[in-house]
């Protein structure tokens, strides 16, 4: 058995897939989650896939004394992967303080414990949202950060600053992973994305429309300066994303990091338009999708895709799965959730 790793938000979408990959790579995992955007049965489903049950504790990371108490009771943590956060861009505009509290305070409480206990290895879930509307494509890690379009984006930008500053004055080593657009589900269809309420993201809206839960998909604009007029994003399979966390962790644990604060883009390096995703879904699954073109969604940027050379070269990681793999897995997951 390898080192013990704490995964915050480990019952959520990306966290659960990462726990599977960590366990498959021999790590011992402790998950903490407050179940605000996940359910306890994910634990069983992870166990079904890996045949090992991760340790779990229901913990509210906004409660500083509970966080301190958790670390008193759980010694020997070699590293932390911090997924727990609120992630809905629109909700963050309506309730910024919720986002600043949940995404910033929780990070600070964890880092205070890292300092106190000498936990040196930290992986942080950042987002391509920090790049805003990029000046050039593909986006490298050196592109200017300009996420002030939403409080959610601000929390990721501020969190990176907090981590960078902490790494300057402590033994902490951090890798911030800037995810592009994660999609898809585990091939077993045991775990996947479970949006609360009406999905805000494209792929869950597509699968729910195909499943008959939503009547029609709205395509937000076909008048962007792209080939087909719809927006372009870099959609990455969540299992590829999960695997990147394992290699990032191994980089820190084996002290192969080149600086104490490092940033990597995690994407495929390929941009796909909304209409291309719809086409690909229809072809892959044989499901005809009911969709219409509507006005642009405020705040959307035209095109975003990653330059992945730094992650390829330094982490030795590359996204391997295709858009078809991702959409097929998302559709099989949706069918399972709906009991088809
Ligand atoms: P998710 O909501 O599925 O998972 C987050 C988990 O954290 C949930 O299980 C939730 O219950 C838990 N949580 C939230 N606040 C908590 C708290 N105060 N205490 C304890 N647990 C708490 O989200 P996800 O899609 O898996 O995202 C994981 C991380 O990746 C987040 O930090 C998110 O901002 C970031 N990210 C996500 C995307 C995306 O599109 N999904 C893209 C870029 C970055
Ligand atoms: C993708 C494309 C929409 C829904 C968001 C966050 C970002 C990051 C990833 C966390 C866009 C179009 C969508 C629909 C549509 N998350 N669309 N109809 O906006 O690129 O990024 O998730 O860090 O911060 O902002 O992802 O899935 O919402 O949209 O036409 O019903 O699909 O306009 O072009 P987005 P998305």
From TrEMBL:
GO terms for molecular function: UDP-glucose 4-epimerase activity. Its cofactor is NAD(+). CDD domains: UDP_G4E_1_SDR_e. It catalyses: UDP-alpha-D-glucose = UDP-alpha-D-galactose. Pfam families: GDP_Man_Dehyd. InterPro entries: NAD(P)-bd_dom, NAD(P)-bd_dom_sf, UDP_G4E. Residues 6-327 form the NAD(P)-binding domain. Keywords: Carbohydrate metabolism, Isomerase, NAD. Transmembrane segments: none annotated. Pathway: Carbohydrate metabolism; galactose metabolism. Its EC number is 5.1.3.2. Belongs to the NAD(P)-dependent epimerase/dehydratase family. Homodimer. This is UDP-glucose 4-epimerase. The gene is galE.
């Amino acid at each position: 058995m390898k080192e013990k790793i704490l995964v915050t938000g480990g019952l959520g979408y990306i966290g659960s897939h990462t726990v599977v990959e960590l366990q498959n790579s021999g790590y011992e995992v402790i998950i903490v989650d407050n179940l605000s955007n996940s359910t306890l049965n994910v634990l069983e489903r992870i166990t079904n896939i890996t045949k090992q049950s991760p340790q779990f504790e229901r913990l509210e990371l906004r409660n500083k004394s509970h966080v301190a108490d958790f670390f008193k009771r759980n010694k020997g943590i070699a590293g932390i992967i911090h997924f727990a956060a609120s992630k809905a861009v629109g909700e963050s505009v309506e309730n910024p303080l919720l986002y600043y509290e949940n995404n910033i305070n929780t990070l600070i409480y964890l880092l205070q414990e890292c300092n106190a206990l000498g936990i040196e290895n930290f992986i942080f879930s950042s987002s391509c949202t920090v790049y805003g509307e990029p000046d050039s494509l593909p986006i490298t890690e050196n592109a200017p950060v300009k996420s002030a379009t939403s409080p959610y984006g601000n929390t990721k930008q501020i969190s990176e600053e907090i981590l960078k500053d902490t790494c300057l004055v402590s033994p902490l080593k951090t890798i911030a992973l800037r995810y592009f657009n994660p999609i898809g589900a585990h091939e077993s269809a045991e775990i996947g994305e479970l949006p609360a309420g009406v999905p805000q993201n494209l792929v869950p809206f597509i699968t729910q429309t195909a499943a008959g839960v939503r009547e029609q998909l709205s395509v937000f604009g076909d008048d962007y300066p792209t080939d087909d007029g719809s927006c372009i994003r870099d959609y990455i399979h969540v299992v590829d994303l999960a695997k990147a966390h394992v290699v990032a962790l191994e980089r820190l644990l084996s002290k192969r990091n080149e600086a104490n604060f490092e940033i990597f883009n995690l994407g495929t390096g390929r941009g796909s338009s909304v209409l291309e995703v719809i086409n690909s879904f229809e072809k892959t699954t044989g499901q005809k999708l009911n969709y219409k073109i509507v006005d642009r969604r405020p705040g959307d940027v035209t095109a975003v895709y990653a330059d992945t050379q730094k992650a390829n070269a330094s982490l030795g990681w590359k996204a391997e799965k295709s858009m078809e793999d991702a959409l097929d897995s998302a559709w099989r997951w949706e069918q399972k959730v709906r009991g088809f």
